[in-house]
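dumping the sequnces here before i forget
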Amino acid sequence: MLIANRKIAPPDSDRRWKIVDATMRKQGYSPTALIEALHTVQEAFGHVSGEALEFVSESLNVPPSKVYGVATFYNLFNMVPLGEHVFSLCTGTACYVKGSGEVLEFMKTEYGLEPGQTTLDGSLTFMAARCVGACGLAPVMILDGEVVGRLSPDQMKERIREWMSHDE
Amino acid sequence: MTNEELLEIVEKEAENTAKFRHRLGVCTGTGCMSSRSAAIVTELQAEVKKRGLENEIQVKKVGCMGLCAAGPIISVQPENIFYRDMTPEEAVSVIDSLDSEPLHEKMIDISEPFFYRQEKYALENAGVVDPERIEDYIAAGGYAALIRAITEMTPLDVIQEIIASGLRGRGGAGYPTGLKWSTVAKIESDLKYIVCNADEGDPGAFMDRSVLESDPHRVLEGMAIAAFAVGASQGYIYVRAEYPLAIKRMKAAIKQAEKMGLLGQDICGTPFNFKVDVRLGAGAFVCGEETALLNSIEGNRGMPRLRPPYPAEAGLFQKPTLVNNVETFANISGIIGDGGKWFARIGTAKSKGTKVFALTGKIKNTGLIEVPMGITLREIVYDIGGGIPNGRKFKAIQTGGPSGGCIPAEHLDTPVDYESLKALGSMMGSGGMIVIDDTSNMIDMARFFMEFSMEESCGKCAPCRVGTVQLYNLLGKFQQGEATEADLATLEELCDLVRNTSLCGLGQAAPNPIVSTLRYFRNEYLEKMKPSAAAAKEEAR
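..and the predicted 3d for all of it:
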């Protein structure tokens, strides 16, 4: 059943909850709007927090267990905030064949980071992307949204070192 | 919108185009965009304006021209010149060259096989039209097929035409499209759905992305024709969230088509209604499986359903649903426009038409290609692809992503069609083709794919959830040289088990990379076995 307006109080006075609410309202607070709602949460807040899960769960009348299940099923939703900078390494086949595995190893030995981990000071999150569909540029890495491609693994390492020290 | 109104737009656009002495097209596909092609467009537009040439030189954004290895590319029409590796700075010199000598050192040689061996059908408009303008698509003949279908044909005529074309699903499995359509059409229901599967998850594949980014209206038109044929009124395009540009362009295209009355209520003054919405994936490979995708659209975890019932009977919200892939829909308007027979003249006996491939890995001409079915792998690798760079040797070509296999050099003369690739233990797949040279180890490759399948397994059924982990660990033993005879036997047995007992395509196909490398590169496995065991094996021969 579609509902035109459902008044569930947001967790706090943050205006971003209104954007989340608008997404759900547009779909009549139907339970099928769950994934769309989570997308909006992630876009607005950068991650999907526990209180966001509760808010969505109540608004859509979906059990919290299901909301949690869906949010953790999909790789795109992250439950903890990301670091200040985000470095994604593409690990698709074309990039793998061209040496992205070497860079993965390098991140582990040089910075102690496994994919999905954030540095202790919260300055950087390292992620491994499945395939960003820019295989023509393989191997590809994304430094804060900027796609960098067509480098040898050694050049990539050089570039990462440079980039990692740019805040110092 | 009527046919007359459509023709008016075509005429107006043609007049507009004729006004310009030169037309510059800048590739704004993802690959070129990340090499600053957006800045090239801005720079060119500013420069043209500065010189007061706005009425003589047109600068437009176009979709993927295919040769991603040489991007960003600028095309110059009507001269038909293509420039490679452009930068915003160099782009200005293209304007200088327009009425004098072309920039020879930057020109792409279009007499190369990369260009003349291809046959563009689904990609006909890619790199030609501005994907953000519906008028451009209409000027290229777009939406004429839709109007023809709904005003002059019956749904049955449309389905007959698709059956006559011999088109088969381009998502990889190759199910006859016409048959699928007629199944959905025959089922009585108050509500039916059309779903476009744009959850292109195979690593190393970017065909659907390029189609969506370069020619979104073509996909919409195909969906609308399908909706008319099967009697559906609502469509969904399920796109990966990792494709922001494709999402943006698709959403814009839907709005434009609605505004022109080509989507929505009473299309072209007929009682035919069709609405399309975009739904975003959220990073789960298994959602490319059609029933998992339907679950995801419904707001659930993307886990596959047991089939039957097939989506054609009970799909989205338990209603009859037609699920086709992006490239399948991209072929529809051409088939209706030119006739199924015309389409069927290309290809082999059982695989008709053309197929788009993303050619990547250790190959000179990386990029997006469209070739007639039946072309050999050798022609793709050496003629179109330009061979292996750095003087290395070809080792294998990987098709079908994590569900496919590696095809070795001795089978390079195999024609590309659904059956032949399957016979080799690989599959057509959605169109990723990754060339591997002799620097790669095949056990590493198999383990790479197994890691992928293991992590992407949704966990619903045990053979896939547990089996992929065991296979992954066994391959690790081989990598470390600790595998025994018994491990090899377990590996083969387990591949068989996972293949035969998994619930969906992901699990059933997950062992393929191992099975195919065991078939063609067994030596690499034997060499990696514990010395004693390998020696015993040798003796036994």
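Strands of chain A lie at 85-90, 124-129, 141-143, 146-148.
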